[in-house]
Design goal:
By secondary structure, this protein is mainly α. The longest helix has about 35 residues.
Length: about 350
Amino acid sequence: MYRVPMDNIQLLFGPMLVGTFFSTILYGVVVVQAFIYCQTYKRDATWIRYFILYLVICETLATGFDIGMMYEPLVLRYATHRATTILPIMLVADPIMTVFISTPVQLFVAWRIKTLNGSRLLPAIICALALSALVGGISTTIAAAIFHEFAKVHQYDGAVITWLASSAVADICITGCLVWSLHKRRTGYSATDDLLNKLIRLTLQTGAITAISATLDVVLFLAAPGTTLNFIFNFSLSKLYTNSLLSTLNARAGWNNLAGDQVYRDNILFGDSKFVSSGSGGNHPASGGERSNVYSVAALELRFRSDNGVSRDDVRRDTESGISVTKVVERFEEEIPPVTRD
């Protein structure tokens, strides 16, 4: 029977332990971001709030599985032959828990893309890739339960490649499609384009992180057999998807600050304060005679009104989708000096 040499023990459990550390840290970030979201965006659609709840529950379970997975070989079966030859029981749950998180997130973003540009082809491709990753993740879990020895993990390379490669390609498609769609909506107005640039940068950052992690996961799995180096990225993969979605949702409050405008929604972290920028550029409490920006953060991403008009139905549909882009409108109110009598 296959046995890991003593000088390779660090390459067996070391990467798994590091990956568990990263996963646990990112779980803390998920909890904080979910807390901020629930406190800040209480008027979002009910199904979206339940979707976030579903992700947090799945992440909690996945983190518990990761911790239990390390507890088994390093504590329960410490210094035994089984610890270095048989996969930890809870490791089998990692692929299926990851795709139960990544696939819904990718489907959600595909729906946003369809609403943003009206195209059905690209969202259909993204959905097909996401479902392919789902099938690959479930197949990997089943295969790992059957071939539960470290020496046999490469007997189901096809399932692992299907899972991780499909997920990485879907992330690349999502990032490219969103960036291109937003780039085409540039208006030439600096205020609007600044907001678009901010959203494009956020899209590139969040999409690239998940795509690179999934790619490194599958590359290390194939290039470094006999080790668990790929688990450094694998265990935290689901947290990257959840954090990417939550960071996009929570960034909506920040769009109002790009033009010098400060808006704080009601939540216990920032209190009940509302600010608008004055003509001199300072931040003062909103009052008559001050300059105020009139663009809403009620939508899931950005909502601007275009010069050529947007129907009420279109605005409602865009609000539900999470992304709609029109122009920033500013209103100036000036105090009229009192009339004096001679």
